[in-house]
């Protein structure tokens, strides 16, 4: 599954220090790979040992010998490129958009992550909410990006993708208070939660 177009230009991501790096080995932000994505990653040279559950799991990360923290084993710190870019998982393709449960876990939300410096700048802010104490709900994106976000949300709720996400509910993360909410995904919620 390939999400097009990519919201952040590739040349911007190549200069950025945020994605593909993690503060802890057990970071909750490590990308989740489905069974198919694990197979594709392995066929593109990633050691199967980085996947603890071949039916779907977050990838195990490695120490960053060039700095602090940890790296995705698919990330090449010298070229700053993903070694499996054409088959990177949906979780990576989605970012800096986010699919997450509401705080009460009663519906699925779609939003954007102001930890992405590109989107943060587009919103006119200098600091992400966790550094500025600003309420994330007060951050806004330009209309063109909002339209792009709604287009991605629409694709996520297309019949084919709803089936895919229903089979891989781990792609919906726990609530992240810093993420700026764009909309509720009612069809996806209905597909994931049994009727009351
Ligand atoms: S944080 Fe944003 S700009 Fe940086 S690599 Fe990720 S998507 Fe690209
Ligand atoms: S799979 Fe590629 S894009 Fe995703 S975290 Fe790893 S290096 Fe980054």
| N- and C-termini, Cα separation | 31 Å
Number of strands: 10
Rg from alpha-carbon coordinates = 17 Å
* Helix fraction by DSSP (H/I, runs of at least 4): 25-40%
Quote the average pLDDT. 92
**In what range is the share of β-strand residues?**
15-25%
What is the number of helical segments per DSSP (H or I, 4+ residues)?
8
Q: Given the C-alpha coordinates, what overall shape results? A: globular
Q: What summary fits the major beta sheet?
A: 3 strands, antiparallel
Ligands and ions found: iron/sulfur cluster
Widest sheet: strand ordering: 1-5-4
- Structural class estimated from helices and strands: alpha+beta
Low-pLDDT regions: none
Please give a structural write-up:
By secondary structure, the protein is of the alpha+beta class. The protein has two domains: 14-89, no CATH class; 96-192, no CATH class. The protein is 30% helix and 16% strand. The chain has eight helices and ten strands. It has helices spanning 10-14, 35-43, 90-94, 117-122, 129-132, 143-156, 159-167, 186-192, and strands at residues 21-22, 32-34, 56-58, 62-63, 70-71, 75-76, 81-82, 97-101, 108-112, 180-185. The strands form four sheets. It has a three-stranded antiparallel β-sheet, with no helix packed on it. A three-stranded antiparallel β-sheet has the order 8-9-10. Strand 4 (62-63) and strand 5 form a beta hairpin. Helix 7 (159-167) packs across helix 8 (186-192). The two termini are 31 Å apart. The model has no long low-confidence stretch (mean pLDDT 92). The protein binds iron/sulfur cluster (SF4) (2 copies).
């Amino acid at each position: 599954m390939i999400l097009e177009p990519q919201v952040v230009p590739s040349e911007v991501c190549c200069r950025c220090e945020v994605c593909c790096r993690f503060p802890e080995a057990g970071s909750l932000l490590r990308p989740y790979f489905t069974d198919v994505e694990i197979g594709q990653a392995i066929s593109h040279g990633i050691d199967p040992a980085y996947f603890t559950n071949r039916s779907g799991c977050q990838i195990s990360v490695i120490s960053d010998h060039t700095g602090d923290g940890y790296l995705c084993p698919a990330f090449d710190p010298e070229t700053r490129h993903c070694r499996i870019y054409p088959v990177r998982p949906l979780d990576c393709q989605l970012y800096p958009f986010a699919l997450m449960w509401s705080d009460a876990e009663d519906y699925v939300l779609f939003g954007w992550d102001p930890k992405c410096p590109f989107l943060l700048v587009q919103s006119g802010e200098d600091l992400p909410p966790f550094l500025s104490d600003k309420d994330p709900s007060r951050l806004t994106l330009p209309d063109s990006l909002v339209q792009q976000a709604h287009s991605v949300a629409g694709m996520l709720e297309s019949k084919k993708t709803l089936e895919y996400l229903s089979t891989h509910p781990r792609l919906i993360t726990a609530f992240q208070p810093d993420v700026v909410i764009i909309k509720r995904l009612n069809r996806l919620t209905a597909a994931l939660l049994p009727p009351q």
